[in-house]
Sequence to fold (435 residues):
Amino acid sequence: MTVPTPTTNAPHPAAPVSLAPPPRRSGKRTRRVRGIIFLKDVAVLALTAFGGPQAHLAMFFRLLVDKRRYISAAELLELQALCALLPGPTSTQTITVIGFRLGGPNLAYLTLLVWVAPAAALMTLAGLTLSHLDPARVAALVQFVQPVAVGFVAFSAYRIAEKVIHTKTAVGLMVAAAMLAYFFQLPWMLPLLLLAGGAVTTVRYRKHTIVQEKKPLRVEWANFVLWLGILVGAAVLGHYTRLLPVRLFENFYRNGSLVFGGGQVLAPLLYAEFVEFKHYLTGPEFLSGLGLVQALPGPNFSFAAYIGALAMRPAGGTGMQVVGALVGTVGIFLPGTLLIFFVIRFWDRLRQYRVVQASLEGINAVSAGLVCAATFLLYHPLPDRLLALPFHLGPIDTLPLNPLLVGTTFLLLLWEKVPGVVIIGLALLAGALLS
Fold:
């Protein structure tokens, strides 16, 4: 009997995916209800997505892909990779573009507001009550959330690899990307790996089906022109008016336009500008806020609200500090939003070309490798904790707590019976009881 030999390196055929806003086929009421449900899910994520952009991706995968099926796993990775190639907060851009995909610009802007508002409000409150804030107390409250977040990332790496890795080439790219991202933690490494992965699989573009009736590629420049106009206009206006809110906006907008790699890369830039150069806040104040934002759910870029509130102290009054927080929040998030809105409007037509379709296999494989690397990178900084056993197993009377929490979280997610919100809630409750 002859056993057919499987082809190991042929690209896995995938159905074409559209990232443009959906056509208006369903009724207005149906679209509104679906948008409200999506915004509720975004609010849940904004309140429970701890751990930075890698953990955010894991939460997006579990809620938006596995549970709600708003988009597919391949779409989510494609969007995340596209956002990672642009400056700005990657997880914020990703969830905003998902809103754009489901309901157009209006839902996208509401998604951005719901996702950013909780973290920005908490960081504003931290700036207003700095003298009464105890960072050690906050750290104790979330001490068990951090290893649980690593468990989410590990599970996300497993599920993503399961769905998008289909060839030996993809396996090789995933492993190589994970190793390079782990050993070379540089801001430009992530976009470089994504581009390199796409270039590797581009050579097999002839194996992809030709789209016979391509829609013409049309680039709408409005958002790019607006991004550039605000960048130049804020600099000129700040120089001539010398108004502190205007200058703060320019500072945050410029940093948000230039930073790749997320909040970890943004922090040293903000420290150099606002602490060392302009002396708007002290080093200890900066570090207290940085530690707090790492312990809160939502985007790490909300740190700008804290800095903005403290920078406006010379203007006097709580009202001016709130203005500073709003200026910081808008300034840091606006450029990345404008840039992703510029790109997403022509990306759907650009990906019709076989070269672009072939590159997505490599980009998705690299994305999976980056999530694998993030699992270990997020685990290493966790403080060592030991769990005392009520009995002795020979010389063993304690067990390492962090691996137990990571492994238990992974198994609970694999079981698919316990919602992620419940797991996070239990971790917070344990921190509150034991702190």
